[in-house]
Amino acid sequence: MSMAAHLDALLGLGREAGALTFLQISLRGVVVFVAALVIVRCGDRRFLSQKTAFDAVLGFILASMLARAVNGTAAFFPTLGGGLVLVVLHRVLAYWSRRSHAFGLLIKGRSDIIVRDGALDEAAAGRNR
What we know:
mainly alpha, two-stranded antiparallel sheet, 2 strands, elongated
């Protein structure tokens, strides 16, 4: 039996989501966990710390995509590859946004100081609803 056939059997590749066994879903979870660590390490550190809408969107989409690889509702390896593509795109856009202030404002937006010296800035609070 070839390595590919063993991998197919272990991960249940090509099987319907409802036909996956507990072991197959568990192994998929382990593989996706390790792959997600590698994928996130390819990203920028800001992805894990200073969350902007730009960073949060990547987090939501990446989590959704990788969940599909675990539960079998999407092709396993192409879904992992798609997650890597999203993280690389995030990194490229983050790089461009650092190089161009205008592009950075478009992608990341800007922050407003709402409390200054312990006092609420009513105008800034109003702009941020």
